[in-house]
Design goal:
heterodimer; A: mainly alpha; 11 helices; about 0% strand; B: mainly alpha; about 80% helix
Chain lengths: ~260, ~260
Amino acid sequence: MTALTQYAALGRRAVINTIRRPTAVVPSLLFPLLFLALSSAAFDRTTTIPGFPPVESFLQFVVATTVIQGALFGAVAAGADMATDIEDGFFERLLASPAPRGSILVGRVTGAAALGFFQGILYFAITILFGLTVEGGVVAVLLVAVTAATVAAGIGSIAVAFALRTGSAEAVQGAFPMLFAGLFVSSAFFPRDLMSGWFKTVATFNPMSHMIEGLRHQVIAGLSASRFLVALAVAGGIFLVGFTMAGRALAGRLAERA
Amino acid sequence: MVGHSVSSRRITWAIASRSLMLIPRVLSTFIPSLVMPVFLTIAMAGAFSGLVLLPAFPAEKALDWFIPMTTVQGAAFAGITTGMGLARDLDSGFYDRLLLSPATRGALLAGPIVASVLRATIPLTLLVVIAVVSGATFHAGAATVVTLALASFGIALVAGAWSVGLALRFKTQQVAPLMQTGVFLAIFLSTAQMPLEYLTGWLHAVARVNPMTNVLALAREGFLGEITWDGTWPGLVSLAAMAALTLLFAARQMRRVIP
């Protein structure tokens, strides 16, 4: 077995592992959709507040946020699965095998990225059925899904790092809401122009605001390469930080074992 | 019989105490349940501060609208973490030893549910302090906290019974997302985000019949105006009904569980 096939096999296992557990995959898939349905019905009348960007509906305003949210949920499942592998001893068996150490990490992260991408496409397919208009068309959908996959890989890496540090699926699941902190203190759910005070300042400095706004622009206004590149750069930054953290956590765990 | 009932109480208290002792020992599982409601308060009151620009919005500040909801949510988290702890005990086999002991099933069930309610005092205290510090409006003075506490403890009991029931049903920590989903659904399919008159379509229809709408009205009563019996009793009745249903579910799972 070549290193590449080992990487692919562990990535495939990560995806199958997640899909086969309805208790993990169903909330990860449905929760963001539920939030979307909820916020669309709850905040639709707020689009009439002066200063709200021109949109057809709150659904159109918030759909890009939902795709990123879905990627985050799926990514946390990657961390929880890693912790389960540690708890049930599979991780130790992997270490005892000749598989490259990096494949343990890359497999999980690739799995998270693949799920993030397909979840993004699925969310758009469903919301289009419910009347969503994507001004940037199919290309915009793909751009948002690619960014979601990158974010999923980054946040998945952070979740895996947490799993490697704690070795507890419960701790990973318990910590998952914290991963949404960056999204909440941003313009993911409401326009920055309607915020005030220190919160608006924080949201302006939060890179997540710029990522979401870049993706949102593709949906509500049409394609814009510069705005997409800003969004992708933020997602790439999250990935770099997360993957470095996961690499260090794996090295730390291996050092403790040795 | 008297000796039996005293023994059951002691077992209940011992299990509840153990659950409370686990807070500092497994801090990584409890901290998110404490930090999350605080964070949501700041995030929602900040992000949605523009909501008060809507005509006839019932709160003076977005904080007054959101802090009772996040406090109730914090109490619900307290219940969920108790259920997650039970699922861990079931996973590790520790709970099997309890099931094989002479302790009554009722006492084993009551322990984590009592712990859920006691755990809820931590987020409640923290969020009341935050409400005071950040200038929330206490229209009804100290009574504002009383109705908030009633709603919080009630929801902690409901979420605790729900999560414990699920833990006993599935006997694995993997059920944690399902525990969270149920509670999130109950809270957000109500007036958690916006007043009933601003909700549109299906959400308006669901929130109108969701008992959580009454519970949130109870929690918010003193933050939005004076406390009245007419504004209080629907919340209390809703809590009683939800508690009865979830306790029944948990008791049913407890009867079925096999070590």
